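Usage

Read records sequentially. Each one opens with the input sequence:
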Amino acid sequence: MVAKYRSSLFRAWPGDVPPSPRGRSLSRLLARARLRRRNSPPHRAAPNAREASAQVRKRSAVTKLLITEITRMGPASCVIGLQRDKEKIQSIRPVPAGANSWLHFPHQRGDILECALAPLPAAKPHIEDRTATRGFQKSSSVAEAETVSYLRKAEMANSLPDLFGCRIHENKKGAGLHAAPQEAKRSICGCETQNLRLELYANELRATLALPSGEVLRDLPVVDRDWRDFIDAALAPGRGANRTARLERFLNSQFHYKIMSCPHHFIRLGLTRPFHDLCWLMLDTLFPLPRPEWLEEF
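and closes with the structure output:
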């Protein structure tokens, strides 16, 4: 019974918007006035507009998303959640109308949010994009380990070409890895890691990791919101002297043990939006998430 309940926590269902109730006490005079307006030339096109609006509402399905990714991209946040479609669990990226990210997103990973999503003809490889047509409503939440258990049932890969279904290229002019937008089949994927190292470059967090295939991915920017907030807190002026050196020692020692020994250690890699016809690899999510008490260890 418990397993059945958990499997339905973020199941989607159709959710057409119900029509507004009409008042029952309208006078005959108002009814005739409406009829005259309806038959006037400017209003003869109104049924088409109403039909289009109804179609948009019909396409906007109320669903439940288990929030798994919150990345920090400049001043805004990009969000990804998992949606259950029958027996399939897939990644969905809710975006506000007319934008790719959220200036304010107060929720956390593991939150299960109810929302209404409409199809969005997004450019490749960001096929996971959906327009959020109403605000998010939190219905429940799950623990970090359970969130990872769902991620392991979503998009997964063990080798570099399988991450996004395309070739991945090294940056010959500097750091990082990139893919061609039209070749990539998706923009997000999970994987297990055989090894992982985080380093600071000009106070920015970069990752080097090994895939189960043995392939090594070097110098990936870490955009995970929680980990970037942790780095900011570690380098805050109020933490005293030698902050950078203390943080680097932590990343080279305690960090490795805390991450690699965690039973639900897991990462998700993503592709940026096309920039100069290239999509760059980044580390979107790193589980376990950092704990505030770790700051007291260095």
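Summary fields computed downstream for this record:
- Residues 237 and 243 are 8 Å apart (CA to CA).
- Residues 46-59 form the longest helix (14 residues).
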